[in-house]
Write a structure and sequence with these properties.
Layout lengths: L1 H16 L5 H11 L16 H17 L2 H12 L25 H11 L2 H16 L17 E3 H18 L4 H18 L15 E3 L19 H15 L7 H20 L23 H16 L9 H16 L1 E3 L5 E3 L2 E2 L13 H6 L2 E2 L3 H18 L1
Antiparallel strand pairs: 1-2, 3-4, 5-6
Helix pairs in contact: 2-14, 3-4, 3-14, 5-6, 7-8, 7-9, 8-10, 9-10, 9-11, 10-11, 11-12, 11-14
Bound molecules: 2-acetamido-2-deoxy-beta-D-glucopyranose (NAG) (5 copies).
One 2-acetamido-2-deoxy-beta-D-glucopyranose binds next to loops.
């Protein structure tokens, strides 16, 4: 009798807690169940948000993989919350603020235009494309991260702006060589201006969070203007941008090889920067093991996505299997430490550092700054990256 009851309870518990076979599905469904990434902020107001764009990229792939219409409808709902029927983008978006972040929702506009043919999505994309034509730049041509951060290039901005820029160009101006050269140059300038050189202390050969071409910021190094630390999420955005852009920019375009070279340089260094014991990446990659530093989940998920996708598509040759092995190890750490099953069948995602209201290089940009920022439960920047990492990991299994 007792045995039966135990059996029933165990069965019931496993029904309630049963997670889907796929972590990608589980993470996405949990975000949807919480109403995350649907074009509204936590108070229900329209918001053009890059993390919604990141999440929609995962949902689109899940829709293509499973055919489950729920994902598609959720994407439509999210975009319709920020695009009026006449194509005007609202939700705290103003062209003349010249911020790169909102443009990360542009790929979803283009996707919905392809899928539905509705002109409002094209008009909305045109507004974003128009922003780029007038966006302020450094003397070398790098887009400023924001108008209010003059002359600053941040790694994050490449993910926010360039995927959209390339997809728009590919769809509407495939022969615009100026645009392709410009897109390529955004990657190259960012790479050259932020890469750690061999004499840097704790050299990892990776990229500092950003640089100030005018060398005026408190954090700008006197020699090259770069910020002091390699921050995992900034490099995570940049690494996702590398693997995503290569799918868009034709192999016959000279920019393809330029960007490929950057990915091939960084991929093994990212692998080598993982913590040997856990496989995860430190929040501040340049100061492993220092008190208050910790393993951060959004950057780790982004690296897993970028490394696995780079190998899957043949951008990076992984002869000895060490890159995939590093991604697998990190993936196991993520699912064991940062995924928590809830009694309502959803999962929680832990340990993603927040982005403060002010931009992160609006500060000292030093070690103490990064480690002083709190982590956030179910932060969409990390949850969406985990969806993307899981999609790649599950492709590897199948
Ligand atoms: C489709 O996805 C939704 C939620 O994201 C889920 O509730 C539903 O069960 C899925 N449908 C199928 C047929 O898998
Ligand atoms: C587009 O529609 C919105 C909402 O109806 C309206 O506020 C806005 O003025 C319209 N914009 C243009 C350019 O017509
Ligand atoms: C091509 O791209 C450049 C750079 O973004 C832009 O200034 C120009 O207007 C584009 N050309 C056309 C025909 O749209
Ligand atoms: C390399 O970095 C060090 C330390 O930041 C700096 O002093 C040096 O000037 C840099 N060298 C080059 C060639 O940029
Ligand atoms: C180098 O790394 C060690 C170990 O994390 C750290 O304690 C030290 O502060 C770092 N040095 C610099 C200059 O970042």
């Amino acid at each position: 009798m007792l045995c039966d009851l135990t059996l029933i309870l165990v069965t019931l518990a496993s029904v309630v807690l049963a997670r889907p076979q796929s972590y990608a599905v589980w993470a996405a469904d949990s975000g949807i169940a919480r109403g995350q990434g649907n074009g509204l902020d936590t108070r229900g107001r329209a918001i053009v948000s890059y993390e919604h764009g990141e999440f929609q990229w995962g949902l689109r792939q899940l829709y293509e993989l499973t055919g489950n219409q729920t994902y598609f409808h959720y994407i439509v709902e999210g975009v319709d919350n920020i695009v009026f029927d006449n194509g005007t983008v609202h939700g705290s978006y103003t062209v003349t603020d010249f911020v790169l972040d909102p443009l990360r929702t542009g790929p979803t506009f283009l996707y919905l235009y392809e899928e539905t043919g509705k002109s409002k999505y094209k008009l909305a994309a045109d507004i974003f494309r128009g922003q780029l034509n007038a966006h302020p730049r450094t003397a070398q041509g790098q887009f400023w991260h924001k108008l209010k951060y003059p002359n600053q290039g941040w790694l994050d901005g490449v993910y926010m702006g360039e995927i959209f820029y390339a997809q728009y160009t590919s769809r509407f101006q495939p022969d615009n060589t100026t645009a392709w050269a410009d897109i390529t140059s955004q990657f190259q300038l960012m790479f050259e201006n932020t890469i750690q050189n061999a004499t840097a202390p704790n050299n990892t050969g990776l990229l500092y969070h950003g640089y100030d071409f005018s060398h005026k910021q408190v954090w700008a190094s006197p020699d090259r203007g770069h910020s002091p630390e390699v921050w995992d999420r900034a490099l995570g955005w940049f690494s996702m941008a590398l693997v995503d852009i290569l799918e868009v920019i034709s192999t016959t375009n000279p920019g393809h090889n330029t960007i490929l070279d950057i990915l091939r340089t960084l991929a093994p260094r990212i692998r080598d920067a993982a913590d040997p014991a856990t496989g995860a990446w430190w929040l501040v990659i340049t100061q492993p093991g220092r008190a208050k530093n910790y393993f951060e989940s959004s950057g780790t998920a982004m690296f897993v996505y970028a490394l696995l996708k780079a190998v899957r598509l043949g951008y990076v040759v992984d002869n000895d299997g060490s890159i995939v092995a590093a991604a697998r190890k990190a993936y196991a750490y993520m699912t064991e430490n940062w995924v928590v099953s809830n009694s309502d069948g959803t999962m929680n995602w832990l340990n993603t550092v927040i982005d403060p209201q002010v931009g992160s290089l609006d500060t000292t940009g030093d070690f103490d700054y990064y480690v002083s920022q709190p982590t956030n439960l179910n932060d969409l920047k990390g949850l969406a990256a985990f969806v993307l990492a899981s999609l790649e990991y599950e492709r590897l299994q199948n």
